[in-house]
Amino acid sequence: MQEPEEKKIALELLETEQAYVSRLHLLDQVFYTELMKEAKTGKTVPEEVVKMIFSNISSIYQFHAEFFLPELQKRMEDWNRNPRIGDVIQKLAPFLKMYGEYVKNFDKAVELITAWSEKSPPFQELIADIQKRKVCANLTLQHHMLEPVQRIPRYELLLKDYVRKLPPQSPDRGDAEKALEMIFMVAKHSNAAIAEMERLQNLWVVYQRLGLEDDIVDPSNELIKEGPIQKISTRNNSTSEKYLFLFNNMLLYCVPKVIQVGAEFQVHLRMDVEGMKVRELKDTEFPHTFLVSGKQRTLELQARSGEEMNAWIE
Fold first, then answer.
1. Is the pLDDT higher at 27 or at 273?
2. Smallest Cα–Cα separation from 88: which of 167, 154, 183, 23?
């Protein structure tokens, strides 16, 4: 008799989980433990750096090795009597939120490995030495570290497939569908954590370019658009190069600094978006111009093209 499709997928989940746990073992019990031991001697890198590289890998490893894998094994041994995995995955799903921290830290971890490998030859040698072992299968530490980042999407795919192949009257249908929904929410949570971190990093870079002025630095701000613009002076019919940063709550009208030490721009004017009016100006002498009038003052600005003007107005 042929195995039912859903059992094949459940077995694939178990097999990939076994391989995944050995990868986590390698990261936590080999790389992390040995690098930490060397760091304690003070010869390679500070202990803090090793901790930053591996983030919360130990908790992730323990969870999978001591809880999820054994539960899954028990369930598959008992499959003929009790063909279901949905409830086990429901127990797993909330713990996957732990991955948010690891995933968010991943890029920084890879940067640290590169930077410290250049700074500390003994650190580089130790990593190279571990990478030569059979258990590493000729792959780098960075490659192994990517595995937890890819694990949640993998669960999602396998479980989607499992739900699709379940017979309509299967006792596992309700649980499996609920488990899939939970995994989907966790995957979204982990992506949202990455997106939020990227937003804050980008925002911080913008604040540095603006000289970190106290009244501007606010983590809840959202940068919508930035770019060079010509300011029209009606007094002497000339234009001068300025730079705009448009946030969700304010428009910063800046002047590029000639000597770029520290900040790149000087904020000349800050206008509140609330109550601001924007309209196109039909000016034959200065094409692509628009007027921005706010509580603070009114600016007559010229964009480089019609598209650019429309993008700013928009």
1. 27
2. 183
